[in-house]
Amino acid sequence: MRYAFLVCVMICISFSAQTLNAQDKENRQNKEAALPLSAEQGWSRPSDKDQASSAAYMILKNTGKDDIHIVSVESPASETAILRTNIFDADIILMPRIENITVPGNNTHKLAPGGDHVMLMGLHAPLKAGARFPLTLETQTGKTLDVNITVGAAPARIAPMKGIKSEPLPPVQDAEKEIEDKKAPKTEATKDDPAQKSE
Residue ranges of the domains in the chain? Predict the structure, then answer.
């Protein structure tokens, strides 16, 4: 009886080990499967010693049939890297943080001034023209894509959108406050308002 029990235990252990090995193999195969995503013409504007942030741009190409979502980004060039886009409200440009950037299946998506981009915040050192730094994009499946960013002028294929100037964009907080100020109802002063009386 005891012998039969030990045999059952050994069989269970062997079966569990085989199951775990199969799952581990499948996970490795999924992780090692080629990511049908590539990046080209990655670039960033130069920065000076007083500039704590910059933006990176590129063209992403998805050769697979399914959409790919970029969910996070990191780079050794800065303390933090996030995904942002631009929203236009009259003559104000907002740059809200976004959860992901989608690259449609069998298509490309351009990260360019005036649109989606990678924001580098807390630069460890000024970005000098001609220098290069790495940037890693992570997808919704956990797979990553390493991109080389060149500091300098924008490539011809990633020229700024029409109407977008090359100067740094205004801070998000300031832009949002300015819009709220513009939307706030204006009240006319009454005749009894001391501010309207001449001294």
Answer: 37-155
Sign of CA dihedral 177, 49, 135, 55: positive
Class for the domain spanning 37-155: mainly beta
Phi and psi, residue 173, nearest 5°:
-60, -45
Distances from the Cα of 49 to the Cα of 17, 52, 122, 123, 189, angstroms = 56, 8, 11, 9, 47
What's the distance, CA 13 to chain centroid?
Answer: 45
Nearest Cα to Cα of residue 99 among 127, 139, 53:
139
Each residue of 50-109: pLDDT tens digit?
A: 899 999 999 999 999 999 999 999 999 999 999 999 988 877 888 899 999 999 999 999
Per-residue pLDDT tens digits for 103-112: 999 999 999 9
CA atoms of 139 and 175, how far apart (whole Å)? 30
DSSP β-ladder status, 87-89 and 92-94: antiparallel
